[in-house]
């Protein structure tokens, strides 16, 4: 008798390149490559990765119609409906990039975060929970103004056209956005590297595979799946395979500075 294989749907952010994004009907990106390497060693499960808009995916997780989603950061108080998290999948550097015009105001002095950013217009991606309460408190006090853009490339375009002064995102995501714009052939991309620069790494965040509370009791295999996923992820890390996946990914896309 052949043991049955459990079908599992995993939700992926469809617009967070190069980490997780849609290409046609397929999920692509660094997290996808890492997770596929883990799932390859979980033969009891047939995993289907579904790229969906981030907010839609979170809504499904909140309703219990979604089993798991990636790659959220760890915000249990802000997203209580994500009731379990895997071991950390990847460390991401969260960086502040600004236009050279904004930085030029400080002449030879490198601006210091956050005291030198009074009045700055700072772009972030939609639904992007990051940084600490002090960051958001300065926004509430109108010390600077945080604006949500459509995605990373749109924020870079706004920065180039001086509708933003700075943007905050994963460092690799911003480097990817620069690369995409440089290769697009658009006139605004000419001299792109001369228009913005990295000012500071503000913190590091870890991305996870997160699981719903299963309020509809649709996933009786949930606990066993999480345990096995964590075991196989640990093996991938300890063997050095995860580091090789990251290095090869960045080298292939010429994202390594």
Word description of this protein:
With about 260 residues, the protein is of the alpha/beta class. The protein has two domains: about 5-90 and about 210-250, Periplasmic binding protein-like II (D-Maltodextrin-Binding Protein, domain 2, 3-Layer(aba) Sandwich), CATH 3.40.190; about 90-205, Periplasmic binding protein-like II (D-Maltodextrin-Binding Protein, domain 2). About 30% of the residues lie in helices and about 25% in strands. It contains eight helices and 13 strands. The protein has helices at about 30-40, 55-65, 100-105, 135-140, 150-160, 170-180, 220-240, 240-250; strands at about 5-15, 15, 20-25, 25-30, 45-50, 70, 80-85, 90-100, 120-125, 145-150, 165-170, 195-205, 210. A five-stranded mixed β-sheet has the order 5-1-6-13-7, sandwiched between helices. A five-stranded mixed β-sheet has the order 10-9-11-8-12. α4 (about 135-140) links the parallel β9 and β10. α1 (about 30-40) crosses α7. The longest helix is centred in the C-terminal third of the chain and has 17 residues, at about 220-240. The model has no long low-confidence stretch (mean pLDDT about 90).
């Amino acid at each position: 008798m052949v043991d049955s294989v459990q079908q599992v749907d995993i939700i992926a952010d469809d617009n967070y390149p190069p980490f997780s994004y849609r290409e046609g009907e397929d999920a692509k990106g660094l997290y996808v490559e890492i997770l596929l390497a883990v799932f390859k060693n979980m033969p009891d499960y047939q995993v289907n990765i579904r790229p969906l808009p981030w907010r839609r995916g979170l809504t499904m997780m909140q309703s219990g119609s979604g089993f798991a989603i990636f790659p959220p950061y760890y915000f249990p108080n802000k997203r209580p409906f994500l009731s379990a998290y895997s071991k950390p999948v990847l460390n991401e550097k969260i960086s502040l990039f600004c236009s050279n015009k904004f930085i030029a105001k400080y002449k030879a002095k490198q601006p210091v975060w956050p005291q030198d950013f009074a009045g700055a217009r700072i772009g972030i991606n939609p639904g992007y929970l990051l940084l600490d309460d002090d960051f958001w408190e300065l926004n509430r006090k109108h010390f600077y103004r945080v604006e949500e853009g459509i995605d990373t490339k749109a924020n870079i375009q706004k920065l180039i056209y001086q509708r933003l002064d700075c943007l905050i995102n994963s460092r690799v995501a911003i480097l990817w956005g620069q690369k995409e714009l440089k290769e697009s052939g658009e006139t605004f991309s000419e001299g792109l590297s001369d228009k913005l620069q990295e000012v500071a790494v503000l913190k590091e965040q870890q991305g996870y595979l997160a699981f719903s509370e299963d309020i509809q009791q649709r996933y009786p295999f949930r606990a066993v799946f999480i345990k096995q996923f964590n075991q196989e992820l640990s093996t991938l890390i300890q063997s050095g395979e995860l580091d090789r996946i990251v290095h090869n990914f960045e080298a292939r896309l010429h994202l390594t500075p």
